[in-house]
Design goal:
With 119 residues, the chain is mostly helical. The chain is built from 2 helices and no strands. The protein has one domain (2-118). It has helices at 2-105, 113-118. The mean pLDDT is 89. It holds the Pfam family V-ATPase_G.
């Protein structure tokens, strides 16, 4: 009976060792699956990031032409306004100088209003 008990104990110990091996393998498998899942998620994130960057670059390129077109329109409008101002200056400069000279040269001397009251 003692031999049978020791054999049973031996069988239980072997079963326990086998069970711990199975548990260890399961833990290693779980850790490996987690690593794989993380690496797959990182790849998916990277692919999504690249796709969004390409989409943004396409959007930027399609709207960059609009910016250049708007800039050209503003430049043309500015040039037209500058020419109008130059023409106006050329046409009116003689008249403005004459008005200024008339005001400076034609002085009408008169008494100050406070002096008029005192006198």
């Amino acid at each position: 009976m003692a031999a049978q008990q020791s054999q049973s104990i031996q069988t239980l110990l072997e079963a326990e060792k086998e069970a711990s091996k199975v548990v260890q393998q399961a833990r290693q498998y779980r850790v490996q699956r987690l690593k794989d899942a993380r690496s797959e998620a990182a790849k998916e994130i990277e692919e999504y990031k690249k796709a969004k960057e390409q989409e943004f670059k396409a959007f930027e390129a399609s709207h960059a032409g609009n910016t250049q077109t708007a800039q050209l329109a503003v430049d043309k409008e500015t040039e037209v306004k500058r020419r109008e101002i130059s023409e106006s200056y050329k046409q009116n400069k003689d008249q403005v100088v004459q008005k200024l000279l008339d005001r400076v040269v034609l002085v009408k001397p008169e008494l100050h209003r406070n002096l008029k009251k005192a006198a």
